[in-house]
Amino acid sequence: MAKTISAKDVFLSGLRNAHAMEKQALAIMQPQVNRLQHYPEVSALLQRHIEETEGQLRRLDEVLEQVDASASGFKDTATALSGTLAALGHTMADDEILKNTFANHAFENFEIAAYVSLITTADLCGASSATLLLQQNLDEERRMAAALHDSIEAVTRRYVELGGSDERADI
């Protein structure tokens, strides 16, 4: 017999997943910022979003506290590790900046979907007090996804431009 899952169960799981997702985002972005040399606009964009992500984690902690729950240390650690490994994997690519740009854009869209679902489950289980905080996170993710999308052409052009010189184009 299948286990019954309530909207609150889905909401609590989603909150823990979102917390871990934001830890993963930090683990992905921080190494990139440290390596960017020829792409100051991307570096500034990532640095700003790192600060936003830290705020998102604080808001998620606040929502978790409101519903008398806590983050999953295991999920936080596991996803942060996978984020670190993903960032490390791209460092070996000749076109690291392009791969990171594409991956960052995809990850932001994943986060957008996660927050839309989380806001929906908050509504379904009557946790309306969480909606404003979660909406702030969603709005920041949407802005970041748009900024990354808008940067793809410029990053690609800069990469190709540097590739034709003696400069290392990838970072």
UniProtKB/TrEMBL annotation:
Kindly give the Pfam families that the UniProt entry links to this protein. DUF892
Q: Which InterPro entries match?
A: DUF892_YciF-like, Ferritin-like, Ferritin-like_SF, YciF
Q: What protein name does the entry list? A: Ferritin-like metal-binding protein YciE
Instruction: Specify the species.
Output: Salipiger marinus
